[in-house]
Amino acid sequence: MVATLAFGKQLSQMKPGKAGFVAQFTNEQLGCKLLAMGVLPGSRVEIVREGAFGGSLYLKVDGNYLALRRQEAACILLR
After folding, report:
1. Contact, 51 vs 73, CB < 8 A?
2. C-alpha 42, offset from chain centre
3. Element (DSSP H or E) covering residue 33
């Protein structure tokens, strides 16, 4: 799923403690990697905390924890 028109909010713009549901990805190649890691459209994503110096995000995705670079999180659009 690749976004052709941006809608929703980028995951990278959210603050720790906030959650949303994955709507789509803006980067097809990264989207494939995220799908393999279990980040699926409709998955609930919560930002647990920001990494040191704000360069990464620690996420809880449907009960599983993972870390992403902020630029990777920017490719995830939420509803």
Report:
1. no
2. 11
3. helix 28-36
Q: From CA 6, how far away is CA 24, in angstroms rounded?
A: 9
Q: What is the CA radius of gyration of the chain?
A: 11
Residues in CB range of 50: below 8 A, 6 or more apart: 16, 56, 57, 58
pLDDT one-digit tens code per residue, 33-76 = 999 999 999 999 999 999 888 889 999 999 999 999 999 999 99
Q: 17 pLDDT exceeds 90? A: yes
Q: Which residues pair with 48 in a beta bridge?
A: none
d(C-alpha 7, C-alpha 48), whole Å: 23
